[in-house]
Amino acid sequence: MLADTILLLKLYWTIDRRADSGTRRSSKMILVIGGIVLVLLSGALGYFASTLTEESGLIQLRAEILPGLLFTIVLFGVVFVGFNQALQALYLSDDLDRLLVAPVHSQAVMTAKLLSRMPSMVTFMLAATIPALLTFGIGVGLNPLYYVLGLTLIIVTPLFGISLGALIAIIMVRLLPARQLNEWVGAASIVIGVLLSLLIYLPTFLGSGDESAVLDAQSLASIENFVNHLGDLPLPSTWVGSALVEIGRGQIAASAVGAVLTYLLITVGFFLVTILLANRLFLTGWLRMQSGGAATQEIEQRPGLFGRSSLDFILAYKDWLLRIRDPRLLATLFTAVVLALISVFAMLRPGGNGTSLLSPSDTMEDGSVDPISAGIVFCGMLYFLGWMLFNRLALTSLSIERQAFYILKVAPISAGQLLRSKIFGIFLPYAAISTIGLVAGLFLVNFRLLWAPYGWLVLMIMGYGLLAFLVSVGFLYPNLEWDDPRRMTNRKASLPSLIGSVVYSLVAIIVAWFTYIVANAQQAYAVPIVIAGLTLLAGGTWLFVHRRSRKVEDAWARIGTE
Q1: Same domain (yes/no): 261, 321
Q2: Fewer Cβ close by (within 10 Å): the C or N end of the chain?
Q3: Same-domain check for residues 259 and 376
Q4: Distance of CA 539 to the CA centre of its chain
Q5: Which DSSP string corresponds to 436-481?
Q6: Same domain for 543 and 428?
Q7: Distance between CA 118 and CA 111 in Å, rounded?
């Protein structure tokens, strides 16, 4: 078994090395520079933590706190990664059908699959913790045995997370199909990543903005007590952290040696037990996945619920079914909603003087119309909210098809029809959300009801123009080879979509705002002025969208071939 495992590991490492040889030199340089920065930062934090163990430090921490904390981060931080690695390597890999019939042990296949292509997250965690562990020992003045044991223990620590994640994946695959489970894992990783990134800005959103950020003695004491209590948690990682510091100080007691041996048993031992005992579960689950097929269904000769509906509605309905049924696409939609709501909350949040963007009124002190009233600001926020929600959906409206795009391309559907249906599917929810928001704004914001129809028409016209432009950019720069929904957009579309959105929005806002100002200044001719302004806005938008449609039709032959 050992020889088979080593052979498979060498083969996988050779494949990965050849694949990395095609990576751009600039990408390699960025990776190297990022790794060096991470190592230096980790080492600096480890040495700084060693100064906190002295009485003259800002706070005084117990010496065993940092090693135990580092072991805990690696011990439990790899569980989710190990689960995803096991799911991809043991069930969704394209070479398993050949390996399992090859003259090698099945345990060797399972071991090589879990260890050969270590996830980048494991490498990141080791690079972020090993320098801190070493510089902490230098700062405290521990003996060489601390470094030898510390490196050994932290290197074997990911084995616990990998084995536990693999065991969970093997059990879950017996309950859910592997591909469906993979979609849910991808969705969970998207949501978790966004929520973790938002935690950085949580104090800013919750704070009042004028509070002092200086920590007083009471706050420092609370932080000191909290961190020191982390060392009392009943975890194997905290026990081995305390034992490692004791050994580093020359206090080789039986309890310290026992803690180290127990930790090795939990990490290395648990990995070996998982490989030996879970092998049969893995094989039966994989065979069940291979033999399980879709149940046959009778096909009835009937047109269906939408058999006689318009082509635009059918394609739009199909796109939204794809987004809702795929958990990963649903997760990207959820994160867009969260980010949009947070952006609106940040704009509505009162500042230090108690004012917000909706503070202006409709009229000024002299009785004239305020050129930047609360109603205008509110309509602008609805337009911005629509852009936040549907920007990515519009850019990926063609990329969502993936390989099915080529079926649409040879179908009796013109490029203009397909473009129109994609715009229709994005514009309808935008129109519904904008209408509901505007109606709610009539009760929340103090602006004149007479101008509500004008604001609604402006939102509809500008929203249609913006979304049609973004969809056309997505047609010209599709990405039909994506596996991760977070990489659906083509990088070539980033700059044109941003510049075009800004230019169109500025021109449309100037036309709508100028019409509003002139109509209020010349109230006797307000109706014809508003009609003329809306006609100019709608006509300009129609010409803009028409030019984009012609550009897509001209490039239709080469789309998907580059």
Answers
A1: no
A2: C
A3: no
A4: 39
A5: HHHHHHHHHS---GGGHHHHHHHHHHHHHHHHHHHHHHHHHS---S
A6: yes
A7: 11
Per the domain annotation, does 354 fall within a domain? no
* Local structure of 363: helix, strand or coil: strand
Q: How far is CA 238 from CA 60, 64, 130, 141, 195, in A?
A: 18, 8, 16, 20, 27
How many CB atoms sit inside 10 A of residue 475's CB?
26
Same domain, 278 and 315: no
> Are 233 and 326 within one domain?
no
Rg (CA), the chain: 30
Q: Please indicate, yes or no, if residue 147 is contained in any of the structural domains.
A: yes
Number of domains composing the chain: 2
Say which residue the tokens 């230019």 belong to: 503
Query: What's the confidence (pLDDT) of residue 285?
Result: 64
Comparing 53-57, 92-96, 113-117, the range with the smallest average pLDDT is 53-57
358 located within any domain: no
pTM for this one?
A: 0.57
Does residue 359 surpass a pLDDT of 70? Answer: no
Contact 80, 196 (CB under 8 A): no
Return d(Cα 37, Cα 552) in angstroms, integer.
44
Tokens of 203: 């104090």
In a domain, 230, yes or no: yes
Kindly state the tokens that stand for 240. 């081995």
Q: Which pair of structure tokens corresponds to residue 381?
A: 């926020």
Cα–Cα distance between 521 and 533 in angstroms, integer? 14
Q: Residue 482: give the domain boundaries.
A: 311-348+369-555
pLDDT category at 223 given cuts 50, 70, 90 is: low
Out of 237, 256, 288, a domain closes at: 288
Q: With a cut of 80, say whether residue 472 has pLDDT above it.
A: yes
**Domain co-membership, 120 together with 252:** yes
What residues form DSSP beta bridges with 369? 363
Strand partners, 113: none
